[in-house]
Amino acid sequence: MFFELIGTIVAGVAAGLIVWALNRTLKGRLPTWLVPVAAGGAMFATTISSEYSWFGRTVGNMPEGMVVAQTVEESAFYRPWTYAKPFVSRFVAVDQATARSHPKQPDQRIVDLVFYGRWARTAKVPVLFDCADAKRADIVDGIAFGDDGAVINAAWRMLDGADPVLKAACQEV
Question: What are the residues whose beta carbons fall under 8 Å from the beta carbon of 165, sequence distance 6 or more?
């Protein structure tokens, strides 16, 4: 966030300086209000560009084996341009590289879900999925596994078979 603020300020200063230098070259033929308007416009454009490119930059920097399962697009009244094209403000990625399953329970797998947010900390949460019955359980204190890999004391939640996180978690790598 700090570096984006610095980048925005630098873009504003650079645009203002360019217009100021152009005005000096033209011997003052441009209106004087053009320098701050150019600086503000450049800062505004940099901010918008940064918001729309955040998702692509973040996905591009994810490690091998991470799959984006679900995205959340956002529009806000204080960002009127987002009504024309909403931007991705947060998303869930499934870490398929670390998926684990018990040999006696091949339809159940534990995967790490990674929650990314535009101005939020990244959270990594292990979740148990039952691919055959389309359900999931959070791995919390009190959950246990038997010798045969069966889950004991799990609070299962039923999912729609078309749930994108379930599909990504159950996809064979």
Answer: 69, 70, 92, 94, 113, 136, 159
